[in-house]
Amino acid sequence: MNFNAAEGTDVRKIERRVQANVPAAHVSAQRDRVAPLLRSMRLVQWLAFGLVLLLSIAAVAAVVLAARGALDTHRFTIEVMHGIGATDLQLTHLFQRKIAIDALVGSLAGAAGGALVLLLLASGASFAGDLIGGRSLSAVDFLVLILLPFALTVIATWVARLAVLAALRETL
Q: What pTM was estimated for this model as a whole?
């Protein structure tokens, strides 16, 4: 018989009920032994969240630097285009499209790498599923993972747009 006792459950009461039904049964509450492991797992979750936050900040900075670098590289062309009547918004669309394509290719490559890691983990570390109660990724989880590269592309494109517009407005 397998129980998932909630926090604060009276283990002795459960033991009496189980032994009333199965006299030879023995109830072993491992809460105290597992508590440090659970605290460590929560700490690892927070650490992972922090890493995702730091990587997001680094990605935004990389997009801004790439956009500004592209502007500096094409400064003469931009001046000529301004001279013949191109607006900042028209120039922004050109840079935005290029960065959107680069971001999509990069995020799809990252998604392929992430999918490979998930497959390796699923095949090689099936015991980890037992540690968390046999849970696996749901259909919604897979949908989020599939949509993530596209969401990242939209965010990178938006950040690039803001960076290019701000840089173009500074130069006028």
A: 0.65
